[in-house]
Amino acid sequence: MLSEENIAEWRLCAPSLREAELSDGETLYRQGEEPGFLYCLMRGVVRLSHVAESGAQITLAIAGAGDLFGRVSPGRASAHAASALGDARVLMIAPSDVERLVAKSPSFSSFLSAGLEASRERAERRLIDRQTKTVAVRLIETLGELAQAFGAPCPHGYSLEIRLTQQDIADLVHASRPVVTRIMNGLRRRGALDYRRDLICVNHLALQSLAKEKGGDL
């Protein structure tokens, strides 16, 4: 995670650098617009989504603390929108200052390189998983990752402290909502998840066991 020392150092040669608080549902940039900044999520959760020609909103990714999104260089419109899920805090740097920081700050260059590489690896892994794993395995692994990243302890294991619909989860695992609903019902029968109010509770130990079975008979 970024330190106050890093931010103070970068601010010396990046006048656009600032931090901003976001409220639930607040949009950072819209699909078709050119993002005005490179964003680093300091706290909270941001949804990256795309609206298809049919009008359906597709959840592409759920960004957590430390993730980068937006634009490193200017000149292109975004194919997705970015909006906060709950309260969040972001670090914002204009593309012109990103270029200046890369040239002048080794710590920023390392930070940017690591962040972009992590994003590339996540995208690559999702593509490989889509081609090589069943929907059940992808769903089990995704729920486990969400629990690790955004979960809080609860009697069942971890409660996902972000409000995701089954359609959001289906989008993340590249599957249809009816298929995901059927598998999630199976996971609930197996004791791997439950629901508390409108939150999903995940039994990570049961999920790990099912992952070893490659989804079992789900």
Automatic annotation (TrEMBL):
PROSITE patterns according to UniProt: CNMP_BINDING_3, HTH_CRP_2
HTH crp-type domain residues are: 133-206
A single Gene Ontology CC annotation of this entry is:
cytosol
Q: Where is the Cyclic nucleotide-binding domain?
A: 16-73
Keywords of this protein's UniProt record, alphabetized? DNA-binding, Transcription, Transcription regulation
Among Pfam families, the record links this protein to: cNMP_binding (PF00027), HTH_Crp_2 (PF13545)
What superkingdom heads the lineage?
Bacteria
**InterPro entries xref list:** cNMP-bd_dom, cNMP-bd_dom_sf, Env_Response_Regulators, HTH_CRP, RmlC-like_jellyroll, WH-like_DNA-bd_sf, WH_DNA-bd_sf
A single GO molecular function term of this UniProt record = DNA binding
Protein's name in the database: Crp/Fnr family transcriptional regulator
User: Can you name the source organism?
Assistant: Methylocystis hirsuta
**Lineage of the source organism?**
Bacteria, Pseudomonadati, Pseudomonadota, Alphaproteobacteria, Hyphomicrobiales
